[in-house]
Amino acid sequence: MFRRLVTPRSLRLRSAPVLRRPYASKAPRSDEMPSAWKMAAVAVISTFIFVQTARSIDRSKPQTEFSEEEFRKVRSGLKRRVTLFEPNELEVLAVLANVPTDKIRAPAGAHVVRVLQALERFRTDKEDKYHALLEELHAQHGDEYPAHLPKGAAVALLGRYIKEVCKAGDSVVLLGFPQNMQEAIQFESEVAVISTLVAPQGSEESQLVKYFNTVNKVITV
């Protein structure tokens, strides 16, 4: 049974509050955790670097330095960034690590997705533009290669995978995601609003739980 950390009526995603902004609009105090705006900026710039690295992976020396103009365009893009799914188009149940899977009550017909599942989809596709980069990381680190991805890469590819398998009106359960605040904010800035965060007992003091608790989206099991 669920023990409610806050007061949502049930675990059903459709009852979760909907945000008007790409990420939680009622952010905790600045002295409690990093600025959501700064973390979103870092996430977008990290994604930009990942894309550029993937494009240059077949060269002898991947591009690691970028002009001031390139970064200026990325930063300015924050103000007009559009998520892959609009609010209310996709129900997202984000289940943190260490949550027992038998405790998860997902909507009927929901897509269940792990980050590794998304990465493998593109790594094993030789025609995909990110195949070479992912294959190189896999050759170096084996099954642990997701831990060695450039910042922002996991969320970028996860979002692309979700866009492939989901459509407006669908529900998706993300297992073991997000792992940190940066991933959460990047996901909500680029992919979709997280409807509910399912957290394990004892995690009430974590930044992720505090962050989503400000908008009454946390349920502990």
What's the overall geometry? globular
Rounded average pLDDT = 77
Order of helical and strand elements: HHEEHHHEHEHE
Strand order of the largest sheet: 2-3-1-4-5
Q: Could you give a short account of the major beta sheet?
A: 5 strands, parallel
Q: Which percent band covers the strand fraction?
A: 5-15%
Helical proportion? 25-40%
Number of strands: 5
Q: What is the terminal separation in angstroms?
A: 7 Å
- Put simply, the count of helices is 7
What number of domains?
A: 1
What structural class is derived from the secondary structure elements? Answer: alpha/beta
Low-confidence stretches: 1-23, 57-66, 74-80
Radius of gyration: 18 Å
Q: How would you describe this structure to a colleague?
A:
- The chain is an alpha/beta fold and 221 residues long.
- It has one domain (13-220).
- The protein has seven helices and five strands.
- The termini are close together.
- 34% of the residues are buried.
